[in-house]
Please model this.
Amino acid sequence: MRIPCVDAGLISPLVQLLNSKDQEVLLQTGRALGNICYDSHSLQAQLINMGVIPTLVKLLGIHCQNAALTEMCLVAFGNLAELESSKEQFASTNIAEELVKLFKKQIEHDKREMIFEVLAPLAENDAIKLQLVEAGLVECLLEIVQQKVDSDKEDDITELKTGSDLMVLLLLGDESMQKLFEGGKGSVFQRVLSWIPSNNHQLQLAGALAIANFARNDGNCIHMVDNGIVEKLMDLLDRHVEDGNVTVQHAALSALRNLAIPVINKAKMLSAGVTEAVLKFLKSEMPPVQFKLLGTLRMLIDAQEAAEQLGKNVKLVERLVEWCEAKDHAGVMGESNRLLSALIRHSKSKDVIKTIVQSGGIKHLVTMATSEHVIMQNEALVALALIAALELGTAEKDLESAKLVQILHRLLADERSAPEIKYNSMVLICALMGSESLHKEVQDLAFLDVVSKLRSHENKSVAQQASLTEQRLTVES
Model:
């Protein structure tokens, strides 16, 4: 019956009736509209365009004593908030204030659950996140956590999860996050810190995710590392090494990875023993944990010493080579390749290169040079150039069987290759001349033609390198 009702033009007069003063009329109108647009995005969009959102928000404020009307409004908001187009309209009303006011009055679990169902989709919008924070939602959520944390009743466990998840969601907005951080002095930030050593998995998870969200700018990261957050996260990880909770492992590693981004934090985190704590999870079979573990290590090894120490760790390098083949998990595969290359680039160490050659890592670096991401291609070429300069004899056979010379020929001949790719490919060609077998391959492939064309390249560095490479090829031939 819905479509005939809509076709007959019923929506417009129903929307008009929302201005009625009669609570019974309002209730039945709201129900009728709710039924008509239930499960239909196009009809919901039509209602939004007719401006029902501000009207319903106003009704919620006026009739907050009427339980049936309140419920009707909440159901309508729950339906409409799913649509992206509704968020801007909601943001221009005082919905945040009304919902928080309503929330504070509710004692029944079911009613709170209904409000949560409206809050969650609305809180995905940054403007509304900030409004909810300003309306005092965070204080309500913290109170719920405090009340429910020790309960084992199912309703309470659900509410604890919903409340702490929503709290993390509010921290995803930059403005709302900074407001709650308050330079690291904020009571909210302090409360969240106290969740990490808790014995409740849900709170540990929410605490670690919240720290990862607070760690989205350098200032916050530096402040947190200086105030001992790293030790708290390492203690948390330690509690989850054996048959631990995967979501908690993933969240704690995410937080450590974000904290390791500012240069000033890297040395502090290394000396706090973060790499040792992270390496305990090398045996994890869970791709999300593997991905964050790799990201954390990659962020930490800008220093030569750390890169050398990790690059000589045979267990780590063997695991990286294994993950470079994780075809089902592109993220893990990409991060493993990038970490292998970073170990060479930052350590510039013969021992590291030997370890990587012995573990079978060379072919993966060569494949990485063909990646669709320029940044990864470049990282691979720089690592391969270091290998060719420092340990060509050791890597020669692997470079040959991975068909490196053919790949370089292809990269130089391809007009779509970025200038830095062309430049580093030529640097690498020159470095390979020291190997008899690779030199022969270079000669067989007529590199001179490709390189001489690049002498007139619009990029000065490419053009210069092309001249140098051409001279080298001519002399060596």
Observations:
- Residues 374-401 form the longest helix (28 residues).
